Amino acid sequence: MDKQVINADVPETGAPFNLCVRYGNLIFISGLPPFDAEFSSRLRDARARGLPLPPFPDLPFERQARIVMDHLKRLVEAAGSNMDCLLKVIVWLKDQRQQEEFDRIYRSYFTGTATLPARTRMQAGRTPLDCGLEVEAIGYVPD
Question: pLDDT (tens digit, 9 = 90+) per residue, 56-71?
Answer without folding.
Answer: 999 999 999 999 999 9
